[in-house]
Design goal:
Distance between the termini: 23 Å
Number of helices: 5
Shape: elongated
Number of strands: 0
Helix content: 55-70%
Radius of gyration: 14 Å
Largest sheet: none
Strand content: under 5%
C-alpha cells in the first residue's frame, strides 16, 4: 500500500519562502530593491511585493530574478522542496 503523502505547502507559505530567498540573496549581494528591479527589468513595487510573499510570481519573472541575482533558479526555489518541510 502506498505511503500517504503529506499536503503540499500552502500558497502563502510558498510565496513567503520564495520571497525570503530572493531577499536573502539580494542582501548578500548588497543590492537595494531598486537595483534588483532594474537588473531584472521589473518594477520596484513588484520586487518588494515578491519579497513580502504577496505575489504568486510567474516562471518568467522567477528566471529574471535568478539571472539578476546571479544564481540558478533552483537556488531560489530550494526552500520550496516539500520533502524538506
Amino acid at each position: 500500500m502506498p505511503k500517504p503523502r503529506s499536503k503540499p505547502p500552502a500558497k502563502d507559505k510558498v510565496q513567503a519562502l520564495f520571497g525570503a530567498a530572493v531577499r536573502a540573496r539580494r542582501e548578500q549581494l548588497l543590492l537595494t530593491q531598486e537595483q534588483l528591479a532594474e537588473l531584472a527589468e521589473l518594477h520596484t513595487n513588484y520586487v518588494s511585493s515578491v519579497e513580502r510573499g504577496e505575489r504568486n510570481i510567474g516562471l518568467h519573472n522567477i528566471a529574471r530574478l535568478a539571472h539578476a541575482l546571479d544564481v540558478p533558479v533552483s537556488k531560489l526555489t530550494l526552500a520550496l522542496d516539500v520533502r524538506s518541510h
